[in-house]
Amino acid sequence: MQVVRSRKKFDVAIVGSGAGGGMAAKVLTEAGAEVVLLEAGSMWDSEKDSGMLTWNYDVPRRGAAIPERQFGELNAGLGGWTLDGEPYTKAPGTEFDWFRVRMLGGRTNHWGRISLRFGPRDFQSRRYDGLGDDWPITYDDISPYYDRIDRLIGIFGTNEGLPNDPDGIFQPAPEPKCYEHFVKKGCDDLDITCIPARMSILTRPLNGRPACHYCGQCGRGCASHSNFSSPSVLLPPALETGRLELITNAMAREVTTDDEGLATGVSYIDKTVGSEHHVRASIVVLAASACESARLLLNSRSARHPNGLANSSGAVGRYLMDSTGTDAVGYFPQFADRVPHNEDGANGMHLYMPWFRDNRELDFPRGYHVEFWGGQRMPRYGFLDGIEKTPLGGGYGQTLKDNYRKLYGSTIGFSGRGEMIPNDDSYCEVDPDTVDRWGIPVLRFHFKWSEHELLQVKHMHETFHELIEHLGGTPITPMPTQEEDYGILPGGRIIHEVGVTRMGDSARTSVLNATCQAHDVRNVFVADGGPLVSNPNKNPTWTILALAMRTSDYIAEERRKGNI
After folding, report:
1. Is pLDDT of 101 > 80?
2. Average pLDDT of 204-224?
3. What's the confidence (pLDDT) of residue 477?
4. Quick check: 390 pLDDT over 50?
5. Helix pair angle (451-470, 178-189), 10° resolution
6. What is the per-residue DSSP string for 111-166?
7. What span, in angstroms and rounded, lies between the C-alpha atoms of 195 and 180?
8. Domains of the chain and any CATH numbers
9. Is the per-residue pLDDT at 388 higher than 90?
């Protein structure tokens, strides 16, 4: 295949337009760099493309999931755990589901906007329990970037003074909903911390963006730009500089290098016609998502880099982590036969439970947080057998209508999200026998939860059931057993996969240094979830954004000095 080579040489080539890639594009263009950004998906404009105010009955499948949108027909997640023509493989015995999005802005268009800072202990957890590894940076190194992101993007919450759940620069939090007040009362009784959620949804206007109007459809893409996404907040100012060139439908194949082993640019496939192209750049920033960036590095083999680019340590693809996850649902007769009422608010939770116990008193080493949900919605999860002796919404005719009216809003669900400790059995590698539709070798996953995670999830269910019963409810979800792995979800299902290009002080055991610069290749950087050394019980996006901003500041300063 003939490769179409760009005549222009850019200062920086970025792969991926999500949280990390969007932040890198904004910071670097505003610092004066000429940047080209490659996005494997299509263009996306939430003002034009969002179904934010579309009624379900106005679309063919009433909003149900379709292969192209596996969170729902109207969801702003163009992709899913399976993509036509883009397979991945799993080693025997492995359960791991890799979620990928193909659209401008990536996952930032449809995520839950739960925006939590990692805490001081999260960066140095090995010194407390001897497990995993400490980061080469501390909370004090990244805290100023969290502050800048709070001011730039906007986040609601409250300052609580919790030592490992740092406060931020918050907008006012929305009023908790009826069922949330109810759950908080139970949490207070049981000494479970329950505080206002921290989410990147505006409750006050900020930087030309209006406050949320509480339509509750964040996952469809926000046409008013009131919540955070890369195309709403990061890419517009980068484009306004006139120094950003966007290339969509560009599937990156490899990072190219010269005889000295330095990066010279990125080759990619134009997915619309199948032709191969190459962009030249002095610096390459990979932000394609953790595993996709690892795949690019592993596929970038040369005489100087026979095991893949930046992989002299053999650490590319290693230390794969996802958040642990499990759910339970309770039926609460206090909420049956309710008079329907307005329960508007920001999308998702208004309260949540950060980690609330001392692991030294437990049989597992790291904690979890709890998200809960309910309110004006139909019950989920099977039957109320033993409660109402009827299936949820069972019967037909008047019986069906009566059941729906009775049970509407009567269930509350609880979801745990916990920390996984990296282990030697969880990693990704290039499959030697399988390629995608463009002939690019795909990833093969190996994944295993350790006993640490299984015991943690067991504790989640014990907490859920204790809380449900204390509040006078009946658990619909049965207590899972050890044989069922305590109900833990497969790896990849929480979509918090990180760690496969981790940072560290030693080039023998890590891929990147403390500024996310490759130890082996001084003009290659990673700005997604790959550099994370641990995966605390906090959603990683705020940290990905902070690291990307910090790394981009470093690149800009090194360019100014003429070092790269």
Report:
1. yes
2. 95
3. 87
4. no
5. 110
6. S--B--PPPHHHHSTHHHHS-S---SS-HHHHHHHHHHHHHHH--B------TTS-
7. 10
8. 1-47+67-113+228-312+500-564 (3.50.50.60)
9. no
CA nearest neighbour of 149 among 78, 32, 233, 211: 233
DSSP assigned state of 521: -
pLDDT score at 2 = 58
Share of the chain above pLDDT 90, in %: 88
DSSP 236-277: HHHHHTT-EEEE-SEEEEEEEE-TTS-EEEEEEEETTTTEEE
Output the six-digit token pair for 272. Answer: 């619309």
Length of the chain: 564
What's the pTM?
Answer: 0.96
Is the pLDDT assigned to residue 1 strictly greater than 60? no
Percent of the chain with pLDDT over 70: 96
Q: Which two tokens stand for residue 222?
A: 């926000």
Q: Which residues pair with 517 in a beta bridge?
A: 525
Structural tokens at position 11: 């200062």
Calculate ∠ Cα 414-419-420, nearest 5°: 120
Q: What residues form DSSP beta bridges with 42? A: 103
Closest CA to 535 of 456, 421, 426: 421
Amino acid at 213: H
pLDDT of residue 116: 98
